[in-house]
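Task 17 of the worksheet. Students: predict the tertiary structure of the chain below and write it out as structure tokens. Keep your answer in the requested format; marks are given for formatting as well as content.
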Amino acid sequence: MLKISRKQKKIVETVSVLVGIAIILGSCLVFWGHPFLEDIVVLTFASVMIPIIIVEYLDYRWRKAVDQHLPDLFRSIVQAQQTGMTLPQAIEEAAKRNYGPLTVELQKMNAQISWGISFEEALRSLGRRVNTVLMQRTVPLIIEASRSGGKVEKVFDPMGKFIQTTLLLEKERKTQARPYLAIIYVAFYVFLFTVVLLFNSFFVQASELPPAMGMVTLTPEEAKRVFFHMTAIQAFFGGLIAGKMGEGSVKAGLKHCVVLLITGYIALKMFLV
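Model answer:
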């Protein structure tokens, strides 16, 4: 499973944003005043977000796999301790088994110890490389257990149960948040339906009336532009809220932003005649 480092994430985010800004600024200079300038901005935004979304998803999947294997790792350490192994020996033995992406990090830790690095420093290095919330919580406990003599059966067993409970609660939270995500999507598409209905039944007919009898001052093209801006704003902030509610991260909402924005863009292009 591919691991994305912080440096790689920063590079992808920085390059994507800079490329997007350059394209949008260049388009504004060349096509300012043209009706398809807004199309370029929308498509550029969606294209720029795709690399960031992919990197965030790969990183999320890697971190999730690490956390899911922590309880199994702790059980193996407890079993090894019960046979008389020290804590470093138990972790070295555990590194020979398959714990998904965590196995590679354990092997790196064992290699550092073989090079003469202390167990505590190698463990801190493991915590910095993995850098998940659960790992950051467990590394200090493992260090304290090692300092107390390495007899960690009474530490690792409840720690594994705690992590299992935490993962179950997180899964339950996401399950409970799904109806709210559905509400955000339904509200957006109801908004789109209302926009299409209002435009085709009111603005188009009103524009055909004589000027003295017209009840609106917006032309159909101006109304399209206003509705397009409203749809883009609704899609952007609705997507961010969906990400925060569903996965606890605003960045996770970028994929919802792109989905809502693209579907809204297509709907307006198809049905606003």
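Marker's comment: The CA atoms of residues 176 and 246 lie 9 Å apart. The chain is about 80% helix and 0% strand.
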